[in-house]
């Protein structure tokens, strides 16, 4: 292990180094501080609301959740990255030693970060419990975080072992992402499915005691699960040694699994990454290659990825705030409650549409824009891919928001129609918003924030799509003021939007209007 320390330092310093752009550095520091504050505030809130046993359970749960997110984002890019393959493969170093160093370096950051975040939790546990119980709980949290990390890496190493069975690299990457998402969300989905009726009852009468009831429901449900009961019973020294032995077994198995295919996959992945850098994916004219090209444009800069993530999570966050305000009747306005479902639908629509991802798809290409002209790319397929990518981001945000809406007991047939209207208007907006950026892209930028934040195209793109959304909203509320049935009004708006989508698709996507 001592001989691996230099390798571990190399991987840590190269892959976790701070970004070069000052703006990204500031945003990264602010994001870390914000997450740390939110995590601490959440722990303190649960400490004062819940019982000591519930607080201990949720402390472990949140620690495991943050560890899983970090390992999915950081460690995967370290352990399964092949960017350093051609350098390390030429050195007389055993493959298992390289893989072990990458796993240790990938695991180190999430575990250390979560341990630092758990310092306030340790203080609260020390106040509530005895020192021996507190130390045992913190040690249990650390061991469980390591176990979760190694379990995820082991599962992904199995998927990595059979990656040659996938037809295209994009299919493998999609499968890996779906596996991580399925593992991470399966406990939440299982809880919602089993306790859906109880959750709806709690959220229907939202007040100050709802959070306490919800925490109690989650705790009782978890304590009834056999796996949780087994884990909670592992409090003796023999049990801790058993968990550590299981971690070592997973660690060794993961090393063996990855090392056995290190050279084969290294050559394969490195050749694919090299090809992607010069943008030859579209030379065969396959539709999936254009989507890969758009994905590469977003993931090549952390700033672009951050905006894509914000596009997904901002609308659900605002949905929770919106529903909380209406449930607690903070505004005390009866007419707002009467139009709640419609206000929610158009709030979700505006938030999911007015993002910088849909308005600046060509400007983000920067110096690579010339290759789309010189290489045999079809402009129409590039345009369609850009529309589809921005639409997918907005659609995820819309669907999550409506799921949250139904959990608050608000769902009915009108909600389904409003969801269809929202999704169709998202498509319409994303068809219109790139038109100006297509003709006048801002390509001469050095800092990625200039392509989005300092780009006047963002405001101009709003003029292409925003009047459409406002017109539909005015028509909708206008029909409601004439006392037309809400369901009939929603169906009329849906028909109007379908006709509008047909006209837009026919004039832009099908006839190539954007190239005239």
Per DSSP E runs of 2 or more residues, the count of β-strands stands at 0
Q: Roughly how much helix do the residues carry, as a percent range?
A: over 70%
Strand residue percentage: under 5%
Shape: globular
Query: What is the average of the pLDDT values?
Result: 75
Low-confidence stretches: 272-285, 512-516
Order of helices and strands: HHHHHHHHHHHHHHHHHHHHHHHHH
Written description of the protein model:
The chain is mainly alpha-helical. 79% of the residues lie in helices and 0% in strands. It has helices at 5-15, 22-49, 52-79, 85-88, 95-117, 119-128, 131-161, 169-194, 196-204, 210-223, 226-233, 237-259, 262-277, 287-299, 302-327, 334-338, 340-353, 356-359, 369-374, 379-407, 413-432, 434-439, 448-452, 457-481, 486-510.
Summarize the helices and strands and which ones pair or pack.
Blueprint: H1 5-15, H2 22-49, H3 52-79, H4 85-88, H5 95-117, H6 119-128, H7 131-161, H8 169-194, H9 196-204, H10 210-223, H11 226-233, H12 237-259, H13 262-277, H14 287-299, H15 302-327, H16 334-338, H17 340-353, H18 356-359, H19 369-374, H20 379-407, H21 413-432, H22 434-439, H23 448-452, H24 457-481, H25 486-510
Helix pairs in contact: 1-5, 2-3, 3-5, 3-7, 5-12, 7-8, 7-12, 9-10, 14-20, 15-17, 15-20, 17-20, 17-21, 17-24, 20-21, 21-24, 21-25, 24-25
Quick structural gist:
By secondary structure, the chain is mainly α.
């Amino acid at each position: 292990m001592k001989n691996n320390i230099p390798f571990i330092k190399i991987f840590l310093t190269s892959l976790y180094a701070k970004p070069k752009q000052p703006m990204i550095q500031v945003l990264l520091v602010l994001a870390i501080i914000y997450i740390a504050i939110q995590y601490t505030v959440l722990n303190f809130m649960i400490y004062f609301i819940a019982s000591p046993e519930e607080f201990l359970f949720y402390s472990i749960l949140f620690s495991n959740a943050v560890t899983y997110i970090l390992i999915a984002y950081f460690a995967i890019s370290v352990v399964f990255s092949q960017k350093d393959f051609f350098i390390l493969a030429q050195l007389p170093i055993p493959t298992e030693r390289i893989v072990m160093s990458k796993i240790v370096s990938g695991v180190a950051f999430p575990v250390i970060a979560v341990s630092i975040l758990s310092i306030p939790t340790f203080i609260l546990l020390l106040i509530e419990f005895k020192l021996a119980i507190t130390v045992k709980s913190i040690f249990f949290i650390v061991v469980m975080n390591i176990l979760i990390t190694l379990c995820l890496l082991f599962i992904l190493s199995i998927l990595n072992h059979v990656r040659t069975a996938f037809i295209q690299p994009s299919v493998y990457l999609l499968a890996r992402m779906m596996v991580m998402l399925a593992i991470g969300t399966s406990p939440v989905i299982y809880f919602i499915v089993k306790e859906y009726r109880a959750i709806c009852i709690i959220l229907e009468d939202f007040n100050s005691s709802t959070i306490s009831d919800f925490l109690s429901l989650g705790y009782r449900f978890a304590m009834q699960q056999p796996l949780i009961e087994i884990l909670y019973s592992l409090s003796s020294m023999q049990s801790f040694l058993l968990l550590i032995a299981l971690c070592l077994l997973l660690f060794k198995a993961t090393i063996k699994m990855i090392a056995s295919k290190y050279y084969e996959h290294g050559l394969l992945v490195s050749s694919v990454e090299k090809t992607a850098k010069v943008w030859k994916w579209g030379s065969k004219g396959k539709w999936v290659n254009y989507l890969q090209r758009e994905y590469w444009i977003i993931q090549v800069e952390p700033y672009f990825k951050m905006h894509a993530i914000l596009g997904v999570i901002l609308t659900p966050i605002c949905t929770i705030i919106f529903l909380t305000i209406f449930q607690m009747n903070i505004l005390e306005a009866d007419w707002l409650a009467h139009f709640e479902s419609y206000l929610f639908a158009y709030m979700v629509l505006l938030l999911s549409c007015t993002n910088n991802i849909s308005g600046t798809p060509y400007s983000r290409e920067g110096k690579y824009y010339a290759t789309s002209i010189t290489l045999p790319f079809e402009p129409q397929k590039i345009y369609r891919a850009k529309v589809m990518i921005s639409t997918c981001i907005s659609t995820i945000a819309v669907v999550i928001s409506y799921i949250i809406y139904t959990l608050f007991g608000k769902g009915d047939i009108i909600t389904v129609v409003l969801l269809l209207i929202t999704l169709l208007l998202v498509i319409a907006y994303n068809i219109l918003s790139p038109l100006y950026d297509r003709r006048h892209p801002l390509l001469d930028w050095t800092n990625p924030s200039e392509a989005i934040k300092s780009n006047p195209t963002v405001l101009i793109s709003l003029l292409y799509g925003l009047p459409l959304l406002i017109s539909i909203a005015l028509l909708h509320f206008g029909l409601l003021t004439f006392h037309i049935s809400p369901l009939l009004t929603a169906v009329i708006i849906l028909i109007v939007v379908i006709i509008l989508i047909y006209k837009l698709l026919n004039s832009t996507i099908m006839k190539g209007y954007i190239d005239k």
